[in-house]
């Protein structure tokens, strides 16, 4: 940048030019990108996050274990193969077709389950003085039995729904605890980021832990509820078929 040759003008413009150059240099220094800092790597493990979530994480962990245990129980006891075993159904239908009631009852007692207990209830309603052996009474007894069995199965399944509803509330409790910790630090005049990070971390981890339990628990609840309803509907249908076989007109009359 050249200045005029007139001495007076040079005397006036020289300080201004120097100030302009100095200001431009400062602005450039502020706008220039800083040297890239070394990337901060987080080496926190899942156990570290668990401890960071605070005391409520112990409650969430206990509820998670209970959810897994209930899911395994429902999976092992409420499947269609467990409720309506093919081999057992074939054997019972053969005995009922021959009107061998004693053999059918013995088979039922040897394999206890909703299907066999329902058939025992139906066999207890047999009326040998009627040509249909009291079919209507047997069907009503089976319907009542299936309703009671489905209700008992749903008691276990409903616990999954309980955990799905409770988990976000437990997480919210941890969120509230963490925010109280952060605001306590602010009240004490500790505005440093490190002082606030602990409470905020506890709040976020507790919330995430509650949702991490609630989402699969809700899915498992709907899955096993449908499985229980479908399984008991199949039990009811199979028992109805057995009663039809037992009371069929072409079936042989049992010996006196």
One letter per element, helices H and strands E, the order comes to: HHHHHHHHH
Number of domains: 1
Treating each run of at least 4 consecutive H or I residues as one helix, how many helices?
9
Mean pLDDT: 78
Unreliable segments of 5+ consecutive residues: 8-40
Straight-line distance between termini? 128 Å
Number of strands: 0
Based on CA inertia axes, which overall geometry fits?
A: rod-shaped
Share of β-strand residues? under 5%
Largest sheet: none
Q: What gyration radius follows from the Cα positions, in whole Å?
A: 38 Å
Please bin the fraction of helical residues: over 70%
User: Which class of secondary structure composition applies to the elements?
Assistant: mainly alpha
What does this structure look like?
- Helices cover 77% and strands 0% of the residues.
- It has one domain.
- The chain is built from nine helices and no strands.
- About 13% of the residues have low confidence.
- With 256 residues, the protein is mainly alpha-helical.
State the gist of this model.
With 256 residues, this protein is mostly helical. It has nine helices and no strands.
Structure keywords:
256 residues, mainly alpha, 9 helices, 77% helix, 0% strand, rod-shaped
